[in-house]
């Protein structure tokens, strides 16, 4: 099953934050139901015109088609997409080429690919594909990266509870794309903070997908401006949209893993404006 329409989230600005209730924040920035068995479920945000969501074959073959919201005959007519599997082993077929994705593998598909479908691998169940798509002005080759094969960066310190391993997959020195920058960060046991100190980057929108979080655990995701912060309480396999003006950081009640993905003005991973802890309000 594939939805015939994509729900839309309109762009927001910092002046709206002080008047928002908790439910307003959740309705605007949180995507609670990313993975639904037997469906491709997507959300369109007008922040940098990103489309994100999940595909869960659940024993079927799911086809990624065109949608009226993107005015295209097929999904990748004017777009590119990064795909990371967060479940059991599955396959993505792109114009007849079959790619096998184990958990944590990343597949990039460029503009112009007409037929894309998702399935569980033979004899496997439980594939869950996370999709992050942005407009593309040209075509780059498809590329599959297995877990641990990207650019690996060790960050943080156990003493400040933010020791983490960052895997860069789609970026300026890795898999080539028009806009997308994408990877996976895994927190080490005993660490709960991601991206701290926090930062903003006015030139890109970033989205997080939190996963490998125990059912009874949560991540407190910080957002907003550094002098007007807010938070969202996020469960396993939920996603959050972070506009370019918003800082983004979080702390969990246990360790977890998250996918970070960006699109916008440039692809320089380190192009960010730090928000020191002492400046946060």
Explain what you see:
- By secondary structure, the protein is mainly β.
- It has a single domain, classed as Jelly Rolls (Sandwich).
- It has 1 helix and 24 strands.
- A hairpin with an 8-residue loop joins strand 13 and strand 14.
- It is an enzyme of class 5 (isomerase).
- It catalyses: 5-dehydro-4-deoxy-D-glucuronate = 3-deoxy-D-glycero-2,5-hexodiulosonate.
- Keywords: Isomerase, Metal-binding, Zinc.
Structural topology:
Blueprint: E1 8-9, H1 22-29, E2 30-31, E3 40-45, E4 50-55, E5 62-64, E6 79-85, E7 90-94, E8 97-101, E9 106-109, E10 116-120, E11 129-135, E12 143-145, E13 151-155, E14 164-170, E15 181-187, E16 193-194, E17 198-200, E18 204-211, E19 219-225, E20 228-234, E21 238-242, E22 249-252, E23 257-264, E24 273-275
Parallel strand pairs: 1-3
Antiparallel strand pairs: 2-21, 3-4, 4-11, 5-10, 6-9, 6-11, 7-8, 7-10, 9-12, 13-14, 14-15, 15-23, 16-22, 17-24, 18-21, 18-23, 19-20, 19-22
Contiguous uncertain segments of 5+ residues? none
CATH superfamily: Jelly Rolls
The percentage helix is under 10%
Query: Which strand-content bin applies to the residues?
Result: 35-45%
Instruction: Give me the number of helical elements.
Output: 1
The largest sheet is:
7 strands, mixed
The H/E string reads: EHEEEEEEEEEEEEEEEEEEEEEEE
Strand elements, count: 24
CATH fold title: Jelly Rolls
Oligomerization category of the chains in this entry:
single chain
Shape: globular
Question: Ends: how far apart?
Answer: 45 Å
Main-sheet strand order equals: 1-3-4-11-6-9-12
Examine the secondary-structure arrangement and name the CATH architecture. Sandwich
- What's the CATH class, please? Mainly Beta
Return Rg in Å: 18 Å
Sheet/helix structural class: mainly beta
**Mean of the pLDDT scores?**
92
Q: What count of domains describes the coordinates? A: 1
Pathway: Glycan metabolism; pectin degradation; 2-dehydro-3-deoxy-D-gluconate from pectin: step 4/5
Protein name: 4-deoxy-L-threo-5-hexosulose-uronate ketol-isomerase
Pfam family, one: KduI
EC number: 5.3.1.17
């Amino acid at each position: 099953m594939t939805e015939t329409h994509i729900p839309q989230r309109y762009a927001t600005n910092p002046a709206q934050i002080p008047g928002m209730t908790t439910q307003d924040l959740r309705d605007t920035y949180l995507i609670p139901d990313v993975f639904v068995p037997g469906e491709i479920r997507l959300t369109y945000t007008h922040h940098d015109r990103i489309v994100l969501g999940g595909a869960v074959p659940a024993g079927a073959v799911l086809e990624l088609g065109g949608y009226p919201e993107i005015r295209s005959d097929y999904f990748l007519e004017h777009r590119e997409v990064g795909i990371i599997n967060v479940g059991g082993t599955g396959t993505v077929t792109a114009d007849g080429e079959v790619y096998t994705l184990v958990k944590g593998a990343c597949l990039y598909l460029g503009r112009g690919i007409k037929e894309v479908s998702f399935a569980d691998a033979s004899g496997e169940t439980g594939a869950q594909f996370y999709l992050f798509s942005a407009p593309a002005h040209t075509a780059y080759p498809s590329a599959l990266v297995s877990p641990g094969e990207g650019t690996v960066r060790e960050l943080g310190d156990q003493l400040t509870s933010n020791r983490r391993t960052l895997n860069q997959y789609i970026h300026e020195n890795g898999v080539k794309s028009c806009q997308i920058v994408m990877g996976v960060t895994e927190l080490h046991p005993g660490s709960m903070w991601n991206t701290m100190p926090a930062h903003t980057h006015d030139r890109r929108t970033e989205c997080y997908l939190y996963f490998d979080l125990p059912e009874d655990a949560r991540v407190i995701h910080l957002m907003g401006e550094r002098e007007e912060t807010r938070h969202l309480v996020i469960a396993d396999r939920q996603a959050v949209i972070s506009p370019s003006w918003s800082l983004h950081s979080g702390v969990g009640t246990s360790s977890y893993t998250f996918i970070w993905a960006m699109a916008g003005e440039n692809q320089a991973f380190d192009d960010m404006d730090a928000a020191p802890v002492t400046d946060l309000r």
